[in-house]
Amino acid sequence: MPFTEVLKAAEKAFKELHEKGSYKVEDLKSPTYQKLINETQKVFDFAIKDNDIPAEMLYKLQNDSFIFSGLKTHAQLMEAASLLRDENGKIRSFDSFAHEFNKINENYNQNYLEAEYQFAVSSSQQAANWANLDDSDRYYLQYRTAFDDRVRESHAAMHNTTLPKDDPFWSSYYPPNGWRCRCTVVEVRRTRYEMSDSEKAMKSGELATTQINKEGKNKLEIFRFNPGAENKVFPPEHPYNKVKGAVEVKKELENKDSKFSDVVQSLKDKNISYLEVKQLSKKLTDNEIIEKIGGGDLTSGSCSSLSFAYAGNKHGLDVNDFRGGDSRSFFGSGRNVETISNKVGGITERDENDITAVRKLIKNIEKNKEYILVTGQHSAVIRMSKDDKLEFLELQSPTSNGFKPLNSDILKRRFGCKKSHTTYGMKYKAPSTLIDIDNLNVDGYSEMLGYINTATDEQKKGSKGRTR
Asked: Do 12 and 83 reside in the same domain of the chain?
């Protein structure tokens, strides 16, 4: 699996590290380093979300993967920082540093990340499995391997281990029990299976998670944890936790407010009602999302909040709009949208001519990605089509929603872009903003969307509505 965005983010992080000439824990607040943390967390979030996990557990697993991503970023920056200076204590040229950087980048963000991603897939699956276990005493838990020629002998020794859910064996040896472990656990009826010897099972588990390295330390002991019982994706004793400064990093990450905490507080201060946003039961296609949230607009114009709602659905969140009122006014404010954009690395261009500003913004667009464009008097999701044509997403039509061509004429007619802006006879530069939808998939976004989310019977849309 390629991790292109993570590798790119790491490349920028190492360039900034070289420019600064040093690294300390406080530097993690840098937007460039935060970008690496967020891109790494997105990889793990993709693995976690593809499971039927209770909301409370899902939040804890996502938080754990975020902290792990921060610790991972800290570890590689520490390693790279140790290579910045030559034997005379002088900062090396970037060219001489680049070779080591490429090695670190490949190790951390391709080789290690591949194994960590696979572990996150397995770990989150087993956590979901644990959360959905029957609470009655009718069942034992039974350890199962993939039962093929790739199974490790030490794991095969645990196959069919059958014990009650509260047996201490499951606290330490509930799978996964190593990198790329494919073992699982199933429920079996007590009346049909004989209970295993707990002491023997513990010895088998201990053997499966023991491998002494050159320093005399057991490198597999970190896997002795239960993802579901502890609400953890990754081993709490993973080496990233042992890097110098990791304690401070972890404390900072654990105490960190969500990206949108101040935006949410502003929404609360305005007494805008909140409707919890839940996970979608299944991933929706683009057309299914458009059908779900689009429609003739009966509000004063919900283009901006609709764009945020679309982004939420793309990230697996069940959110609808056409609420109108104070919610529409808040998310329709250019100043508020720019605040949200700044929190996730959005780009704002100011120009007297809106179309000139948009032309500057679209230079940042990449294929196979979607963005929210806010310019003139309109906001919409945009993308580059397969044949290199710009498209925008219409969501406010009573009859024809979907992606449509975007050109200068559309920018004038649909977006209301102007060649110049004046106030009291004076020209001024108006802002146009571009937000990468992928960057909205961060802690706190679903909470913010709760102030957009609208119950089906309260949505102000229909055949009598119109594009606004």
From this structure: yes
Pairing of the two strands 317-318 and 278-279: antiparallel
Q: How confident is the model at residue 215 (pLDDT cuts 50, 70, 90)?
A: very high
pLDDT at 79 (0 to 100): 97
User: What is the arithmetic mean of pLDDT over 4-14?
Assistant: 95
pLDDT at residue number 256: 65
226 class by beta-carbon count within 10 Å (0-12 exposed, 13-18 middle, 19+ buried): middle
Question: How far, CA to CA in Å, does 65 sit from each of 185, 267, 370?
Answer: 23, 28, 24
Q: Are residues 242 and 195 in the same domain?
A: no
393: tokens are: 């997403």
Domain residue limits at 147: 133-224
At 88 the pLDDT is 87
Domain-embedded: residue 423:
yes
**What is the rounded distance in angstroms from the CA atom of residue 410 to the CA atom of residue 412?**
5
pLDDT at 150: 96
Phi, psi of 383, deg, nearest 5: -160, 165
**Domain shared by 339 and 249, yes or no:** no
Number of neighbouring beta carbons within 10 Å of residue 100: 16
Note the pLDDT tens digit of each residue in 295-311: 999 998 899 999 999 99
Tell me the pLDDT tens digit for each residue of 389-413: 999 999 999 999 999 999 999 999 9
Does any domain span residue 295?
yes
Q: What's the number of domains the chain is made of?
A: 3
Do residues 321 and 411 share a domain?
A: yes
Residue 467 near residue 299 (C-beta atoms within 8 A): no
Stated length of the chain = 468
Residue 260 confidence class, pLDDT cut points 50, 70, 90: confident
